[in-house]
Amino acid sequence: MEDSYEEALARRSGEIMERIEAAARANGRDPGDIRLVAVSKTVGPEELFSAIRVGYRHFAENRPQMLNAKLEALKTRSDLPPVDFDLIGNLQKNKINAVLGRVGLIHSISSLHLAEAVSTRALRREAELSAAAPQDVLLEVNISGEATKSGFTADEVRSALDDLRVLTGIRIRGLMTMAPQGDARRARATFEGLRALRDELASRAPELDLRELSCGMSEDFEEAVAAGS
């Protein structure tokens, strides 16, 4: 008999966690330090509910309107445990207000101008609400240099660091990148390049807590774990 959607989801989740744990141990890491983020942008609320029931607790969306629709749907489900959402993908400046306070982490701060805009809006929100906190963000860096990928170049983020570190409306928690598809060797090199850049920036700006490296997708997450994601 064919598995139900939820049974297949549970089986897949178990397989992924086993592979993450194996990759972590093989590289001398604590599996508990690695967070699995489920990209829920392609599914509806019912599929999201199933994912929560089988154990997923951390999700990512790329469109503010879909994020907010799912947050509203979750308000009707008191039987489900709390979950967190992050924002991935391109963030347009006119959508910043729609995600502030609704996501734990914005993974895609791809330029100094965007960082400044998010910081300004977050400070305005803090002044209006009194209790709002700075928005946690990651800097998106195009380590591989592919023309199809967005983000700072490594040199651009180095040059912008002094301007970024003084933005009080955001907390820079680390870096994000995407690797070339279909090449495990290049993926590993890309992720190791991100880690090296993070270590360099952390040494220059020790007041920043740059612990997060967001990288690795379905085809290359074991290389990401090995590199420190």
Give a brief description.
Helices cover 45% and strands 13% of the residues.
Describe it:
The chain has 229 residues and is of the alpha/beta class. The protein has 2 domains: 1-89, TIM Barrel (Alpha-Beta Barrel); 105-229, Alpha-Beta Barrel (TIM Barrel), CATH 3.20.20. Helix content is 45%, strand content 13%. It has 8 helices and 7 strands; from the N terminus they run H-E-H-E-H-E-H-E-H-E-H-E-H-E-H. It has helices spanning 5-26, 45-53, 64-74, 96-99, 112-129, 154-164, 184-204, 221-227, and strands spanning 38-39, 58-61, 84-87, 106-109, 135-140, 170-176, 212-214. The strands form 2 sheets. Strands 4-5-6-7 form a 4-stranded parallel β-sheet. A 3-stranded parallel β-sheet has the order 1-2-3. Strand 4, helix 5 and strand 5 form a beta-alpha-beta unit. Helix 7 (184-204) runs parallel beside helix 8 (221-227). It starts with a helix and ends with a helix. The mean pLDDT is 94.
- Name the CATH class of the largest domain: Alpha Beta
* Main sheet: strand order: 4-5-6-7
Find the CATH topology of the largest domain. TIM Barrel
> On the 0-100 scale, what is the average pLDDT?
94
Q: Using the CA coordinates, give the radius of gyration.
A: 18 Å
Order of SSEs = HEHEHEHEHEHEHEH
What level of helicity do the residues show? 40-55%
Number of domains: 2
* Major sheet details: 4 strands, parallel
Q: Tell how many strands the DSSP assignment holds.
A: 7
Outline the low-pLDDT stretches. Answer: none
Named at the architecture level, the CATH assignment of the largest domain is Alpha-Beta Barrel
- Shape descriptor: globular
| Count, helices | 8
Distance between the termini: 38 Å
**β-strand amount:** 5-15%
How would you classify the helix and strand content by structural class? alpha/beta
> What's the CATH superfamily of the largest domain, by name?
Alanine racemase
